[in-house]
Design brief:
single chain; mainly alpha
């Protein structure tokens, strides 16, 4: 398992500058203009990093090679999900750090103080995206990975404004009950776990 994770990050090491570029571009695009820039920068950076990692797999035909080794396909999928979680933490924490710095250096942008709840909301949103993306990636693989990434990028762009409206509604007092607030993270975790097992099932049946 550890070697599979090392493989992912060694492959990504040469493209590390691209993930930093993603962070810089999304920060410039969203921070001055959007009240929800904290969420957008973290989500877009995390998902773009995940897409980059999967495209490196496709380019290098990593899965075609890995399935010939004495490695369980379950472990291959586990490693990719763990990598996705690491990308998530990278995107969200990097966004938090940049917004904290912006608040100190450019106070006139009036960025709020972000809490642990803001971090958890960003993580939850990314986990939902991962839960949808991973089964599709392992099903279509080389034949459709590029299309999947383009479709998800378009969806993220299209949903930016509705997400802003929804987040503003959630911030209003009384819009969301304590019970709903409790059920949402549980639902996200269940979706993530279900996605993991579905991906294992799909990848196990896949012929190379």
């Amino acid at each position: 398992m550890l070697n599979l994770l090392r493989k992912d990050f060694i492959a990504l090491k040469s493209s590390l500058w691209i993930t930093i570029l993603y962070l810089a571009v999304f920060s410039v695009a969203f921070i001055p203009k959007s009240e929800l820039s904290f969420y957008f920068v973290g989500i877009y950076t995390a998902f773009a990093s995940l897409s980059l990692g999967t495209m490196i797999d496709i380019k290098n035909h990593n899965h075609n090679f890995l399935v010939t080794l004495p490695i369980s396909r379950k472990h291959i999928v586990q490693a990719k999900y763990i990598s996705a979680i690491i990308y998530t933490l990278y995107g969200v924490l990097a966004s938090y750090g940049i917004h904290w710095l912006i608040k100190l250096v450019i106070p006139h942008l009036n960025k709020p103080d972000y809490s642990v709840m803001d971090i958890l909301v960003s993580v939850g949103m990314i986990l939902v995206l991962i839960s949808i993306y991973m089964p599709l990636f392992y099903t279509l693989s080389e034949k459709g990975a590029g299309i999947i990434n383009i479709v998800f990028l378009i969806v993220l762009i299209v949903l930016a404004q509705p997400t802003t409206i929804f987040m503003n509604m959630m911030s209003e007092k009384g819009f969301i009950s304590d019970q709903t607030l409790f059920l949402i993270p549980i639902s996200i975790l269940l979706l993530f776990v279900a996605s993991y097992y579905l991906t294992i099932k799909l990848f196990t049946r896949k012929d190379f």
